[in-house]
Amino acid sequence: MPTPSPVVLELDNVSVAYESRAGAVNAVRDVSLKVEKDSIVGLVGESGCGKSTLAYAIMRLLKANAHVTQGSIRVNNQDVYALSAKELRKFRWNEMSMVFQSAMSALNPVMMVEDQIFDVFRSHRPNMSRSDVLKRAKELLSLVRIDHKHLKSYPHELSGGMKQRIVIAIAIALEPSLVIMDEPTTALDVVVQRSILDQIKEIQREKHFAILFISHDFSLVAELASRVAVMYAGRLVENSPAYGLRNSEGHHPYTQGLMRAIPKLTADEVTIDGIPGNPPDLITLPNGCAYHPRCPFVFELCETTKPERYRTGESELECHLFASERRGSHV
Amino acid sequence: MSEFVEKSLGVSDSSSVGKNNTNDGDIYKATFISTLVNVSDLAVHFPVKTREGRQFVRPVDEVSFTIGKGEVLALVGESGSGKTTIGRALVRILEPVSGCIEVVGRDVAHIRGSELKGYRNIAQMIFQDPFGSLNPVKTVERHLQFPLHKHTGTQGVALSERMNQLLDQVGLTPVAEMRQKYPHELSGGQRQRLAIARALAVQPKLIVADEPISMLDVSIRAGILKLMNQLRTEMGLSYLYITHDLASARYFGDRIMVLYGGRMMETARSDELIRHPMHPYTRLLLAATPGSPVTGPLPETSNQPPNLLEGRQGCPFAPRCPLVTQECHTAQPELRELDARHQVACHHA
């Protein structure tokens, strides 16, 4: 039996709340998740489900009005919130880095690409010589397949795909063990998207870092990731291996709903069904399971009691249908 | 009724051959006997400043297509391919530099003033961003009142009833409550429904829907597509459905037209195009779409963007095409008919 890969990111019952005039907004509730070395875990959910908040919590980049209220976040076995400000500064980018949502605005428009890459080395490797830094910057650009001449380009001279590649190059500059990618390809065309994803996989094969890949595009994540975590209203409702997502059986009703909502490119049937209702307001969450007002399998228990986390096979699900005494009877 | 509508309806009544015989639910077998839109050799240009001085880009060049009554034509392409520009030219937010846009039998490419106002009763647009296309300081009611009053002259009780009917039609209920809400009180899906109601207010025949679902959450996209489909059956609407997503184009479109670098690459019935793509660019798009069975490297040779400058030569896809030959760089491929409903513009397909 092969030895399990070391766990790079470990979230244990993490909750994050925003303070607001209307009361605390529990954007992330009780999320537990592991990301192993060399793997890609996809985090899927609709806007406002807390997926970006979770990413910012891991990077300890939450805004002043947001707090981790519960749980621990460990990267390489180091509690991120136990670090002092100075240690954190070193820890970020060395151990974990992030590719932000819009590449278009993540780069400084008045700095050349080379200076933005050099910045990383200037602050984290102050003893590196200038020629070594330049050599490393060229290596990074080769890795994301961008011509070295673009070191002297400004962001506006590059296409969206090239900017995104440069942001990825900067994120992996110090060879961190965890890279969080927050919707890295959302604003890009499908062809560019696909080529960037292929490249990410290729670089990962070489550098063996772990990726937490955040996206709203279910079919994309199912293809790219080895495990898929589905969030709804701040909770992780399902965590399953990606290969299990080819058929809709044995999944959380919300996951099933998402699967039915996407038009298939090649399947014979061309019907799609939306999920009735709207995503919930995080301030006035429904009692019990947050999904129950939209769920086709709803029964009394769902309206009153929060479901626990149940394991079936390789999946973890938060749904009463998967409680051991009911398992298999509904789904 | 405006001068334009009377004139053009007169023409269309005599020219329409028969009723379009769409069977409910069997949209792929539908035949579209009468044509609503006939666009030929459409070209749009914009001035740009370059180092060589003022030049023109042509984001749309020699594009021709037709849309039948009650038909949905899906326009697919990447950003910068000219799909939004075609949509905007079709509803005449833009004026084309050349070519002809025939709608209900009349060329509307260069109409102005009251004629253009009349044309708004026939063609309407739904925009991509429902957060930007609604006025944040106006209630739902006011969004509908304005087009109803301006274009149909409805007033008083009739106006109020018509608004209720429209909101009901797009599923914004309870109507009385909805009428008083402001856009910020609506969800993305509800906003897009309001945008659809506003477009329907003038009882148009053609709706240009510019990526109407791309900014919405996945779980509510299907609802909007279904609504548009239902309106098509109920009201016999025709759509130009602009999207970058082949899967939704296949779901909603009767035919798909693939655009690249401002030129038409391929057009066919939706199923035919997905199952038997002929053009190398269509194949590339299909291979790159999530959920495609194609794995392995993408069938392209570079990722160079197409040249859009006026006076460009050859096929715009040539720099990326795996089938490229010398001919492709110099001669623009003609649109060839493979069969009556499948056309492709490629020297080698």
Spell out the blueprint of helices and strands:
The complex is a heterodimer of chains A (331) and B (349).
Chain A: E1 7-18, E2 25-36, E3 40-44, H1 51-58, E4 66-75, E5 78-79, H2 85-94, E6 96-99, H3 103-106, H4 113-124, H5 130-143, H6 160-171, E7 178-182, H7 190-207, E8 210-215, H8 218-224, E9 227-232, E10 235-241, H9 253-261, H10 300-304, E11 309-312, E12 315-318
Helix pairs in contact in A: 6-7
Chain B: H1 3-15, E1 35-50, E2 53-68, E3 72-76, H2 83-90, E4 98-103, E5 106-107, H3 113-119, E6 123-126, H4 140-152, H5 156-169, H6 175-179, H7 188-200, E7 206-210, H8 218-235, E8 238-243, H9 246-252, E9 255-260, E10 263-269, H10 270-275, H11 280-288, H12 326-330, E11 336-339, E12 342-344
Parallel strand pairs in B: 3-8, 3-9, 6-7, 7-8
Antiparallel strand pairs in B: 1-2, 1-4, 4-5, 9-10, 10-12, 11-12
Helix pairs in contact in B: 7-8
What do you see in this structure?
The complex is a heterodimer of chains A (331) and B (349). In chain A, 30% of the residues lie in helices and 23% in strands. Chain A is α/β, with parallel strands linked by helices and 331 residues long. Chain A has two domains: 7-95 and 176-322, Rossmann fold; 110-168, no CATH class. In chain A, the strands form two sheets. Chain A has an eight-stranded mixed beta sheet with strand order 6-7-8-3-9-10-12-11, with helices on both faces. Chain A is globular, with a radius of gyration of 21 Å. With 349 residues, chain B is an alpha/beta fold. Chain B has a domain at 3-122 and 204-305: Rossmann fold (3-Layer(aba) Sandwich), CATH 3.40.50. Chain B is 34% helix and 23% strand. Chain B is built from twelve helices and twelve strands. Chain B has helices at residues 3-15, 83-90, 113-119, 140-152, 156-169, 175-179, 188-200, 218-235, 246-252, 270-275, 280-288, 326-330; strands at 35-50, 53-68, 72-76, 98-103, 106-107, 123-126, 206-210, 238-243, 255-260, 263-269, 336-339, 342-344. In chain B, strands 6-7-8-3-9-10-12-11 form an eight-stranded mixed beta sheet, sandwiched between helices. In chain B, a hairpin with a 2-residue loop joins strand 1 (35-50) and strand 2 (53-68). Chain B is globular and about 70 Å long. The termini of chain B are far apart. Chain A binds chain B through residues 46-47, 159-161, 189-195, 198, 216-220, 222-223, 257-258, 260-266, 270, 272-275, 278-279, and chain B through 78-79, 187-190, 217-223, 225-226, 244-248, 250-251, 274, 284-293, 297-298, 300, 303, 305.
